[in-house]
Amino acid sequence: MLRCLWAALRTVPCEGLTTTKSSSLLFGAVKVSAACFNTRARYFGNSRSLLTMPEVNTDSLDEKQVQLLSEMCILIDENDEKIGADTKKNCHLNSNIDEGLLHRAFSVFLFNNEDKLLLQQRSDAKITFPGCFTNTCCSHPLHTPQEMEEQDAVGVRKAAQRRLKAELGIPMEQVLPDELTYLTRIHYKAQSDGIWGEHEIDYILFVQKEVELNPDPNEIKSHCYVSKEELKEMLNKAKNNEIKITPWFSLIAETFLFKWWDNLQNLKQFMDHGKIHRM
């Protein structure tokens, strides 16, 4: 059995990549501080709203991950209509999420030719859900013209291609946007700890290809391909608090994933771009 899977089932480190020390699989608390993130900048259309907000201390967090907090995410309403932009940091603060701040995201599920699903374990450096097992790649399209293209979710698929390269080192020519099948969207909310969380409308993207992997250890602690049976065993271990799995992956696995997995060659029957599943 794959070493990564054994690691998950025994709750010991996976065949892994060296990362900076951070919180454990049990989501250690993140402190509140820091200098450069003490204001909120939101963009609605062509206008900018600047509001004072409590300082959030990022001194104890990974430097590279903190730099990524300045990326601009796409703000949306509950119907996935664009309403503006805000920083990744502001989008992931529970205090803002509690006010209804919602952004666009995506989840990629990549399968090999043996119909096994590529999982990653998020690095301990990640600000939300460190050390958790999850699907192949989960991230956000940015508030840029290229990644805001709406037709056939082209912008989201371009963002997914970018992040597959950034996180897993998959050469961009090996997974093209047109090869990513956009199935549907889910809307979910989850806290990582007392400060950070997620509130997203998540585009579900499937692809089956053989790819080269060269993961960034700052993003990914370990990775492995799993069969359906192996994933079901991991889900059971998660229910017993023996391992941690991200909430969005758990929701998708408990509802849709295995039905889709059984039909990798006939996914068109599950494409539903009109509905947002409220989870």
Question: Keyphrases for this structure?
Answer:
279 residues, alpha+beta, 5-stranded mixed β-sheet, 4-stranded antiparallel β-sheet
What does the model show?
- The protein has a five-stranded mixed sheet with strand order 8-5-10-9-12, covered by helices on one side. The protein has a four-stranded antiparallel sheet with strand order 2-1-4-3. A three-stranded antiparallel sheet has the order 7-6-11.
- It has seven helices and twelve strands.
- The radius of gyration is 18 Å and the shape is globular.
- By secondary structure, the protein is α+β, with helices and mostly antiparallel strands.
- About 14% of the residues have low confidence.
- Helices cover 23% and strands 27% of the residues.
Q: Helicity, in percent? A: 10-25%
Specify the biggest β-sheet. 5 strands, mixed
Would you report the number of β strands? Answer: 12
Strand fraction band? Answer: 25-35%
The SSE order reads HEEHEEHHEEEEHEEEHHE
Q: Low-confidence segments, ≥5 residues, pLDDT <50?
A: 9-41, 46-52
- What shape does the CA trace take? globular
Lateral strand order in the biggest sheet = 8-5-10-9-12
| Intertermini distance | 33 Å
State mean pLDDT (0 to 100 scale): 85
By helix and strand content, what is the structural category? Answer: alpha+beta
Radius of gyration: 18 Å
How many helical elements? 7
